[in-house]
Amino acid sequence: MTLEGLLPELAVIRKDFPILERTLAGGVPLIYLDSANTSQKPQVVIDTMVDHLEHHNANIARAMHQLGAESTEAFEAARDKVAAFIGAPERDEVIFTKNASEALNLVANTLVWPGERQVGPGDEIVITEMEHHSNIVPWQLLTQRTGATLRWFGLTDDGRLDLSTIDELITERTKVVSLTWVSNMLGTINPIAEITRKAHAVGAIVVVDASQAAPQLPIDLSAMPVEERPDLLAFTGHKVVGPTGIGVLWGSRAVLDALPPFLGGGEMIETVRMEGSTYAGIPHKFEAGTPPIVEAIGLGAAVDYLAHIGLDAIHAHEKAITGYALEGLRSVKGLTVLGPLDAAARGGAISFELDGVHPHDIAQVLDSRGIAVRAGHHCAKPAHARFGVQSSTRMSSYLYTEPREIDALVEALEYTRSYFKLDRA
Amino acid sequence: MTLEGLLPELAVIRKDFPILERTLAGGVPLIYLDSANTSQKPQVVIDTMVDHLEHHNANIARAMHQLGAESTEAFEAARDKVAAFIGAPERDEVIFTKNASEALNLVANTLVWPGERQVGPGDEIVITEMEHHSNIVPWQLLTQRTGATLRWFGLTDDGRLDLSTIDELITERTKVVSLTWVSNMLGTINPIAEITRKAHAVGAIVVVDASQAAPQLPIDLSAMPVEERPDLLAFTGHKVVGPTGIGVLWGSRAVLDALPPFLGGGEMIETVRMEGSTYAGIPHKFEAGTPPIVEAIGLGAAVDYLAHIGLDAIHAHEKAITGYALEGLRSVKGLTVLGPLDAAARGGAISFELDGVHPHDIAQVLDSRGIAVRAGHHCAKPAHARFGVQSSTRMSSYLYTEPREIDALVEALEYTRSYFKLDRA
Amino acid sequence: MTAQDLDALYQEIILDHYKKPHGKGLREHAGHTAEVHHVNPTCGDEVTLRVHVSDGVVEDVSYDALGCSISQASASVLYDLVVGKSVDEAMAIHQAFLTLMQGKGTVEPDEDVLEDGIAFAGVAKFPARVKCALLSWMAWKDATAQVVAGDGDN
Amino acid sequence: MTAQDLDALYQEIILDHYKKPHGKGLREHAGHTAEVHHVNPTCGDEVTLRVHVSDGVVEDVSYDALGCSISQASASVLYDLVVGKSVDEAMAIHQAFLTLMQGKGTVEPDEDVLEDGIAFAGVAKFPARVKCALLSWMAWKDATAQVVAGDGDN
Ligand SMILES: Cc1ncc(COP(=O)(O)O)c(C=O)c1O
Ligand SMILES: Cc1ncc(COP(=O)(O)O)c(C=O)c1O
């Protein structure tokens, strides 16, 4: 079957991902619909890492020998690739962390300490009810520790941000607005530009969690008008076909320079004396210790791979698959999708409920047919609470997903209904 | 040539490390003497990572499907392997971080916040003048931020801890003693048991930086008498033939339970509500976000590899090579070794000065002959300052180092002397 | 898992308990009771469980649980197995259930002790689901320990 | 690097400047001066450098430097090249040296402008050493900018 917008070379792309050849217990082939959780890795990412480990491995920056120079060059080239991937105004504004969670904590953690941007009692931090726990807990810790107040954008019934309260939420007291670009549970794409403009008008900084956006939306920070450009943006390597152990924090030089150091140690210093130390400039200031070298290099290969296919094409593919999936899911009796129903206005993660079957049980039946989905709260408990559900089942596609996999999902959901004898109850 | 104590299967072991086949510019074979900076990786570590990425990749804990179960099992098995490697009393006391630096910062960072162990004005933290920057800067940040005082063990002229001041340093005011087990610059092996006993007697906790110890000394925490067992111990994956992007913090359950959370986010929570969150037990409490999954799995393979060869055998090998190297270096005119001269009492990192040539220039000449050493301050500026030097050259061996590589180093140092015409000056 | 594994997991007995759980709901009691709230952090399953003990006998176990079929059914089976037993007997049953669940599918359950609980033998093969089956049992143990220690209301 | 590269890096001129650096030492001056301290964080090389400008002319550059042959020689060459020149001329020379060093070995140096500085062409091929060569030049630019902006002592 062909669908408008699908990647033309889909069969070729699938060949790039060795795991897609896997068969599971009972000889069932794998149907991987859990890419919002973590994406699969193309051969080129794996090979790049292997080549590094087998031929160029050395510590970076500090090593003067040839392996050290090769390793440093590969690591810094990865920074250039990531900078290009998000259109960063400056390559030194790209900081490597271990995942998106660390990137978000880096920001929340350093805002506690003396500096231009220090947060204190009376200040307000605004987040949203659809955030991933990694963009909630750091701010809860920050506000508990500083006496600042945490405020929340609510959600509309169809899973969008409720912007009707924006003027009460974003005020002169607001120091930081932190929100996700694309929801990992509801799929919602948030109006980052509008909110950033509003936050900047009151002098607040904006942190964008791009963990779900980076895999599927073209991002070009340089092309954004400054008023609408977030000050900080985080994403995670393993969701953009890169390895685990690597994440990215991009920040404008002005804001990063104004933050005090996060972790202290090797590589982040200018000089260390017993009486006190001074720190290196960005990006090194925030990269204490031996960084995830081979992981950064793998991430460089990953974003190159995505860029080669083209983020516009990937986005179109996601939209096509998501639209097809929404349609298919609608045909299943008793199934309710949480979040926007318009494929054009959302990302590729679709969470749903099926009357009478708990998400774990759905996932288990699906798994017996080789279909991998996620069941649970997807690290978004407040969003689940908002919709009065304790957990949900989530399917999430990516550039390697085929329509026939969606067909298999829909069929397996029908099977689940019959397995649990829902029509007899 | 054979030397007492060398690993019997040295030639076979070398074959396990693909990079050792590398030739450099001009066809010169690689002589890698920079293992204290980062170690090379055996094929089994690389293959384990590739197998995971190609066949089992999935996010852990949260994923209920077969790939998720395989990935979780492999990740948690890696924790068991690491626990066994250091003889941890409990496997849940092993926390995965991104490197040793993060592990040390985790401790220094959480001691700032309310909890049984909170540090405040008047409290004292004791470290030593031979620490790596990663075990200095976190404590400088902690003391600056809490009003506590940082105190230092000095060094003797032959590069050992000056224990004569121990009674003035470790007192009722001491809350934490943090020190390296083996110095990455001087090679010194510190009397951890003695210092821990002393610190415990005054109720202080002891943090041991085992970044250089873990690669070469057998560690068995369970076998240590409790009074002499450190409370926390950190090391880094890339120095124990594992990948970058992974480090370990071991801590006794009692101390880890008493520390507040470090980074907030997915996986470290029990429940998240808008009004506040509660946290999971160890180890998850300290593992926010998607952990370095494939890196932990690679580290598991790495410590298994080392354990298979045997840490006693590796330690004996290191001693033999270090003794041989100390002897060879002594033959070079104008060369001074910094640190203890007795191979039995030190680790395998040997830093030295060569009269009349700057360390960079030495490293450069060595590099033209394929010999990789480190030149600089080795992230130990206070220790360099203590010995009145700004930088030094460091050779460091590991389980794959052969005596002929030491011969090549000595010969290249002679060549360096002639290249810079030292005898004519 | 295969389709066969699936059937081993979802035994009829489990599905029956799931559809018609025994003892569900929170009940008030005079005397020694303790209430606990346990959560499975990974999936969000929750249980609030109250234990009422009198003269060393488990008089009632009442609970409010949100979760999958396995976790619901296991609370129901727990209720059947421990109510009316002495605390010691009940703890022994708890131990038998724990042993079964942690046995990775290798432990042969004793029907005399575990009754409907033997249906959970299939669950033991799925590490991800063992936590579901144990949620209410762990909560029960915790609450009972509190009553016995006198921490509960009395 | 090969033995040939090594010779390209350590040209005689560089080694001569290293052994007998020109203008080394910190000197006191009345009038417009500024002092800066720069460090190469990776290797620890350090320079304290003082610039004395009068009537738009670089009257003196005095320095105290700890570092390798490349960094020492480049401070010496810097001294030769900029002292006595107008600030504008000196800045142009600085720019030419910078271009050479950042050219990865592809830039052909102009001997009329850079004099002994052309010996650093070989260094440009070694990224790890470019920083050494630039340390004092960056310090000089920083200090000179401060004097010109009037931030220095006067
Ligand atoms: C003694 C010591 N401590 C800490 C570290 C820091 O390790 P990492 O850079 O992997 O965090 C190192 C190595 O660089 C070390 O040698
Ligand atoms: C929206 C969002 N934010 C943050 C994260 C955290 O990413 P990581 O677990 O890699 O830190 C995730 C993924 O789990 C996510 O989907």
From TrEMBL, chains A, B:
InterPro entries from the UniProt entry: Aminotrans_V_dom, Cys_dSase_SufS
Transmembrane segments: none
Keyword Lipid metabolism: no
Record's keyword annotation contains Transferase: yes
Ranges of residues in domain Aminotransferase class V: 31-409
Cofactor(s) required for function per UniProt: pyridoxal 5'-phosphate
Keywords: Pyridoxal phosphate, Transferase
Family from the record: Belongs to the class-V pyridoxal-phosphate-dependent aminotransferase family. Csd subfamily.
Name the UniProt record assigns to this protein: Cysteine desulfurase
Organism of derivation: Nocardioides daeguensis
Lineage, highest ranks first: Bacteria, Bacillati, Actinomycetota, Actinomycetes, Propionibacteriales
UniProtKB/TrEMBL annotation, chains C, D:
InterPro entries cross-referenced by the UniProt entry: NIF_FeS_clus_asmbl_NifU_N
Domain NIF system FeS cluster assembly NifU N-terminal: 10-132
Pfam families associated with the record: NifU_N
Name the record gives this protein: SUF system NifU family Fe-S cluster assembly protein
Native source organism of the sequence: Nocardioides daeguensis
